[in-house]
Amino acid sequence: MIEQKRKRRVAVFDIDGTLFRSSLLIELVEALILEKIFPAAIRSRYGKAYRNWLERRGGYEKYIAGVVRAFEGNIRGVREKDLVRVAGDVIAFHQNRLYRYTRDLLKGLKRRRYYLLAISHSPRYVVNDFALHLGFDKIYGRLLELDRRERFTGRILNEELINDKAKILLRAVRKENLTLKGSVGVGDTESDIPFLKLVERPICFNPNQPLYRAAKRNHWPVVVERKDVIYSIRN
């Protein structure tokens, strides 16, 4: 009888705001503006929301939604090689800008041979190498369509899948011979709730208000890292 391959435990991480202490998409858009690939005028799409967030008069969600609109509204016609170059610069500059708690958690899970799954709403051009540097086994980010001239069309190829993080997790479990027994999930916003409901050990890290409310309802642990202090809240 052929011995069945033992299933590996899985740990799934959101990237932006969970491991990376910013958003890869924000840094990418700002770099594209600095390189004059995107016009500086597009900051008007998120500038007010950014100021409101800094001054605690508005939420982060409106700010990041403006950045997404700016990216999606200007990526059409950009050459792939230009995005690859700028994304590489962003990764090289920011690759160690990590939260200590999630960085150390990731290292510990890797030592215990967990299958490490990264899911991000940022473009895969910037997510992939950033996450590979951290030792992830599989990375999901937004896939951008190219035309015959190797320029972007503005279309997202995997939008339905990338917006359903629970579906991504279940797909990985099925395809990679994984198990949800002993599984770990780390997220920071309400878009992470679907996969946090699936794992045995959900962790809400620096959660926004909707995720914090969900953590209280579901009795999920909350971990906050502020300056050089890390503390846990048990619901």
Automatic annotation (TrEMBL):
EC assignment: 3.1.3.3
Entry's Gene Ontology molecular function annotations: L-phosphoserine phosphatase activity; magnesium ion binding
GO cellular component, one term: cytoplasm
GO biological process: L-serine biosynthetic process
Superkingdom of origin organism: Bacteria
Pathway connected to this protein: Amino-acid biosynthesis; L-serine biosynthesis; L-serine from 3-phospho-D-glycerate: step 3/3
Catalytic activity line of the entry: O-phospho-L-serine + H2O = L-serine + phosphate; O-phospho-D-serine + H2O = D-serine + phosphate
Cofactor(s) for this UniProt protein: Mg(2+)
Keyword Translocase recorded: no
Keywords (A to Z) from UniProt: Amino-acid biosynthesis, Hydrolase, Magnesium, Metal-binding, Serine biosynthesis
Name of the molecule in the record: phosphoserine phosphatase
Annotated source species: Candidatus Liptonbacteria bacterium RIFCSPLOWO2_01_FULL_56_20
